[in-house]
Design a protein that fits this description.
Layout: E1 14-15, E2 20-23, H1 30-36, E3 41-44, H2 57-62, E4 67-70, H3 80-92, E5 97-100, H4 105-117, H5 122-130, H6 143-151
Helix pairs in contact: 4-5, 4-6
Length: 156
């Protein structure tokens, strides 16, 4: 499913389909690179105050004609309201859409939950999640909340 034009050197880059890509944090050069592969909207799940967050990301994207939705999800407290906002943003966005956070962990969990809600087979959804991480099998103590978050994967 990879596209040879994909900027796969962006941290934790993943192409899920022709309509959706994901990654970790963006750098100053990345908005133009996303525009170059046709991305029409970016959804950011990271917090603005993270040291690796791209300053003025929304303005940088707007200057390139790319829509922007920011849904700041605290890493220690993902909630149903964040997931609902994500689904609404994704549904309302012009595609192709790029979804990112800092490490692609938030995004992979959100996409896992969405895939399960949409009826994707658990094995296929697991395989896509595990490209980035699997909080159910992580040694990171912060993963516990994410394992609980994805366990709610069949409901909104």
């Amino acid at each position: 499913m990879a596209n040879p034009a994909d900027p796969d050197d962006i941290r934790a880059w993943q192409r899920l389909s022709e309509a959706v890509t994901s990654s970790g944090c963006l750098t100053a050069a990345d908005p133009a690179r996303l525009a170059g592969i046709g991305v029409r909207h970016v959804i950011n799940l990271a917090l603005d105050d993270h040291p690796e967050a791209l300053p003025d990301e929304g303005e940088r994207l707007a200057a390139l004609g790319i829509g922007y939705s920011h849904i700041p999800v605290p890493f220690d407290a993902p909630a149903a309201m964040h997931f609902d906002a994500f689904v609404s943003a994704l549904d309302g966005a012009e595609h192709p859409v790029h979804v990112h956070c800092i490490m692609n962990w938030r995004v992979s969990a959100f996409l896992y939950r969405l895939h399960r809600l949409q009826g994707m087979d658990a094995t296929e959804a697991d395989a896509l999640l595990q490209v980035q991480w699997d909080p159910r099998h992580s040694d990171d103590p912060r993963a516990v909340v994410w394992a609980a978050f994805i366990a709610g994967g069949n409901s909104r």
